[in-house]
C-alpha cells in the first residue's frame, strides 16, 4: 500500500518543478528536444492525473486538476517578465490538453487507485 499523502506530496513536487522550469530565464531553461507542445502536454498531464485519481472526493480532484490550467496561464503571463521568455497561446493550449488528458484518465482509475492508497 502507498500513502495517499506521499502521492499528493509527489504532486506538489511536480508542481514546483513545472513552476521552476517555467520561470527560468530562456538562456538557462532546458531546451525542448521534441517541440514545446509535446513537453508542455507531458508536463501538465500528471499535474491533472494525480489529483483526479488520488483525491478522496472526485469533485475536489477535478477542481485541483482544473486549477492546473490556471497555473499554466499564470506562468505564461509571468514569462513576459522573464528574460528570453514570452507568452505563447500554443503553450496554454498544450498545457490544457495535458490537463484534460490527465483528468480524463485519472477519473476512471480512481477505484483502482483507491484500493492501493492508504490514508
Q: Shape from CA axes?
A: elongated
Measured between the Cα atoms of the first and last residue, the distance is: 10 Å
| Assembly state | single chain
Q: How many structurally independent domains?
A: 1
* Largest β-sheet summary: 2 strands, parallel
| Average pLDDT figure | 93
Helix content: over 70%
Helix count from the secondary structure assignment: 4
How many E strands? 2
Question: What structural class should be given to the helix and strand makeup?
Answer: mainly alpha
Name some characteristics of this structure.
mainly alpha, about 120 residues
Describe the 3D structure:
With 119 residues, this protein is mainly alpha-helical. The protein has one domain (2-25, 35-118). It contains 4 helices and 2 strands, in the order βααααβ. The chain has helices spanning 4-23, 36-54, 58-79, 89-116; strands at 2-3, 117-118. A two-stranded parallel sheet has the order 1-2. Helix 2 packs antiparallel against helix 3 (58-79) and helix 2 packs parallel to helix 4. The longest helix has 28 residues, at 89-116. The N and C termini lie close together (10 Å).
Amino acid at each position: 500500500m502507498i500513502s495517499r499523502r506521499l502521492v499528493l506530496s509527489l504532486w506538489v513536487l511536480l508542481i514546483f518543478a513545472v513552476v521552476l522550469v517555467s520561470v527560468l530565464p530562456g538562456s538557462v531553461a532546458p531546451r525542448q528536444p521534441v517541440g514545446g507542445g509535446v513537453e508542455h502536454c507531458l508536463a501538465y498531464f500528471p499535474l491533472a492525473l494525480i489529483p483526479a485519481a488520488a483525491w478522496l472526493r472526485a469533485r475536489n480532484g477535478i477542481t485541483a486538476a482544473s486549477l492546473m490550467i490556471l497555473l499554466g496561464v499564470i506562468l505564461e503571463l509571468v514569462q513576459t517578465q522573464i528574460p528570453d521568455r514570452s507568452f505563447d497561446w500554443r503553450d496554454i493550449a498544450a498545457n490544457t490538453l495535458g490537463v484534460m488528458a490527465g483528468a480524463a484518465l485519472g477519473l476512471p482509475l480512481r477505484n483502482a487507485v483507491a484500493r492501493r492508497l492508504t490514508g
